[in-house]
Amino acid sequence: MVSLADSKRFDRAKSKALLASGLGAAGAAAGAPLGPVGAAVGGGLGVITGLIVGDQQIVFPVDYVAVPAFEYALLRQGMAPSNIIYIKAGETLMPTGGNVQDVMQGEVEAEAMSEPAAKPKRRKRNPWITFNKRFKFRDKRKSESSQEYLTRRTKAAKTAYYKQKRGGK
User: Fold this and answer.
1) Three-state secondary-structure class, residue 60
2) Tens digit of pLDDT for each residue in 113-155?
3) Which single residue of 10, 66, 108, 168 has CA 20 to 30 Å from 2?
4) Is the pTM of this model over 0.85?
5) Is 1 helix (H, G, I), strand (E, B) or coil?
6) What is the helix (H) or strand (E) element at residue 59, kind and residue range?
7) CB 157 within 8 A of CB 135
8) pLDDT in tens, 40-63
9) Please, which residues have CB within 8 angstroms of residue 108's CB and are 6 or more apart in sequence?
């Protein structure tokens, strides 16, 4: 009897092999204009990339420009590809080729197994900041600097705050 975990592993391995073979074919096609050696090298690099990429997310460390694999050889000949995609650093590449459902299902299962997120505890309001926001003080005079005004306002607010805390004594 095959367990659920074994079937997921088998499906993941199968999709990884399909991805590796697909990228190998694309790499061989991209290297084909350079002759049989180019096709072999391109195919080998495609297979290795497919095995490494597999079904894991990749976060791009630097900015990339992506072009279709079959048009890669056109770049060396000076021709522009039909489609260019700019990928910013920090973006994530999701797996493709039939294993997207497996990854999404795994994330849903992980969320279901984790305990429900508790609401973050609200911080207690700072009474001084609340008082200072509501404190009314005279307007700034033309003859005093802003620093002088703020010093006097802070001193007056502090005095009023402590007087209020002591109960108006």
Assistant:
1) coil
2) 666 678 888 889 999 999 999 999 999 999 999 999 999 999 9
3) 108
4) no
5) coil
6) strand 58-59
7) yes
8) 766 666 666 665 555 566 677 777
9) none
Q: Which two tokens stand for residue 72?
A: 């890669």
Angle, alpha carbons 138-142-147 (nearest 5°): 70
Residue range 15-36: mean pLDDT, rounded: 68
- Dihedrals phi, psi of 137, to nearest 5 degrees: -135, 160
Classify residue 87 as left (phi > 0), alpha (psi -120 to 50) or beta: beta
Q: Quickly list DSSP for 72-116.
A: HHHHHTTPPPS--EEE-TT-EEPP-SS-HHHHHHHHHHHHHHSPP
Phi/psi-derived region of residue 123, left when phi > 0, alpha when psi is between -120 and 50, beta in every other case: beta
Average pLDDT, the chain: 74
Residues 71/81, Cβ–Cβ less than 8 Å: yes
Q: Are 70 and 83 in contact (CB under 8 A)?
A: no
Q: Which two tokens stand for residue 57?
A: 């997310």
User: Which candidate, 44, 53, 52, 51, places its Cα nearest to that of 26?
Assistant: 44
CA–CA gap between residue 82 and residue 21 (Å, rounded): 24
